[in-house]
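writing this on my phone so excuse typos. first protein, seq and then structure
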Amino acid sequence: MIIEQPSWFLRWIYPKALWRMDKHDHSVYLTFDDGPIPESTPFILDTLRKFGVKATFFMVGENVARYHELYNRIVAEGHQVGNHTFNHLGSLKHMAITYGQNVAMANDLIKAHLFRPPHGWMKLSVYWWVNRYYKIVMWDLVTRDYSKWMTAEDVLNNVKRYARNGSIITFHDSLKSIDKLHYALPAALKWLQEQGYEFKTFE
């Protein structure tokens, strides 16, 4: 489902997940999915450091295993980590026990208490299992930086149009996104700071 903001129906299906933080707090929560990879993660980290911003990286276990030095850099620079399964596993074709084993294998490397499902979907059996062990973090705004139909300016405009108090903003630490992020990420951070937003991570 290609949407910048989740429907009420999704929020209803996964009621214990975090979709938006305090709507009275002038803050946003930056998240990056699918990394780490050498083609994009260093640029993202350099940009976040330049702006003095901390973010949460929902990482794929096999990428962490392959590029563990990037995982170490993310942690060393004070960012938060989250579990995004071992190999970007979708839940619809897997039993809860198989999915759970995949998540656990990833967490042996990532060591996170936060989880975000790839594609933003889980079978209810998977949801209830994951919710027992992790805080599930979804999103209030997907920038759609991964879409081949979006330009870098479109990605920036999505941030400008949909960001609000408590927004959980999702970018992607991936090959599909990095060309757009070279422009859109620093421009988005600059704009968010100009609007007076504070950048926070999850407890």
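second protein below, same order as before
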Amino acid sequence: MLVAAAICPCPPLLVPDVAAGAAPELDPVRAACLDAVGVLAAARPDRLVVLGPAADESGEGRYPQGAPGSFRGFGVELDVTLGADGAAPAPGPQLPPSLAVGAWLLSRTAWSDAPVEGLGVAERLPGDRCRPLGRELAGSASRVALLVLGDGSARRSIKAPGYFDERAEAFDADAARALGTADTTALAALDDRLAADLLASGRSCWQVLAGAAEGAGLRGQLLREEAPYGVGYMVAAWT
């Protein structure tokens, strides 16, 4: 059963070493993310699953506790391991960037409250496949917590990675409202094609969350919403 969820954005710039001189601009978002992760620990889960968007179109990729990740591709000699701070990395493939950000967030809180698994979800995975996956995750242990990573639209301004799209702000507002109120119906109703057009990487992971939270009776709180660099970032906690 799902007992808690933290929803965070996952730009590599969230890691101060990557952001360098621009790091202070995201300090409020970082602080909100750490508050959200703190909610997970307070829920005393038996299992934590970290969800993040991945480019793999096959559907999903699973990563064990201790899976290695790196920010070397962003010009920084910084390595992370998933939920195993200070331990030797587990053998296997490297974490996708979104899950590396998740591993970094967990390391900031010295996570040790429950075993951790990573799940990379294809950004274009259809909603009717996302929700059953969420239900499967929720049924995998008595007390399951999710760290759900993903960004809103990357088309919020002319300087955004995808340039400006007038539909982007309304899409992000709908998503933020759903995330802030734990509205699983509204999350499930997010349009796959529109999300793809708007470069909203979090849509598939949010819809996995919607499936996991069905019938759980969780309440949501939006901790932060902004769009620096023309990308929608939302932080929320469900308890």
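Residues 2-238 form a domain with the Protocatechuate 4,5-dioxygenase; Chain B fold (CATH 3.40.830.10). thats all i got for now
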